[in-house]
Amino acid sequence: MEKSHTIILVQKTASKASRTFLDYETVSGAVDGICNMFERDLKERFAHQRELTYDVQQLFQWIDHLHDLSALVFDEKQTAYLPFTKAWVKEKVLKQLKKQAGLR
């Protein structure tokens, strides 16, 4: 399922106007997209700082504070999109960041 088309549904605030979606060819692409969205938000909030650093806990807090975040991942066997929650997204983020850092 890691190579499956993935749609990320995001609602940043309680306002329905903050709803959006992003689509990616893979789950890992979607995870990268979520991390990039977090980094863009950091850059906007701390525009006066030249260099920003963060840890996975801050990323997870950001995810938790989103009004809604979910993923729809295409399953070829069922020929349908399967829904996943914030907890699943955080699990995939952690797994991918560990892999990028050379950890298991």
Shape: globular
The biggest sheet amounts to: 4 strands, antiparallel
The ordered string of helix (H) and strand (E) elements is EEHHEEH
Structural class from helices and strands? alpha+beta
**End-to-end Cα distance:** 19 Å
Function: May have a role in the cell cycle.
Family: Belongs to the E(R) family.
Organism: Coccomyxa viridis
InterPro entries: EHR_sf (IPR035912), ERH (IPR000781)
What this model shows, in words?
By secondary structure, the chain is α+β, with helices and mostly antiparallel strands. It contains 3 helices and 4 strands. A 4-stranded antiparallel beta sheet has the order 2-1-3-4. The protein is globular and about 50 Å long.
Task: Write the topology of this structure.
Layout: E1 6-11, E2 19-24, H1 27-45, H2 56-65, E3 68-75, E4 80-84, H3 86-100
Antiparallel strand pairs: 1-2, 1-3, 3-4
Helix pairs in contact: 1-3, 2-3
Overview in brief:
Keywords: Cell cycle. It contains three helices and four strands, in the order ββααββα.
Keywords:
104 residues, alpha+beta, 4-stranded antiparallel beta sheet, 3 helices, 4 strands, 42% helix, globular, cell cycle, Enhancer of rudimentary homolog, EHR_sf
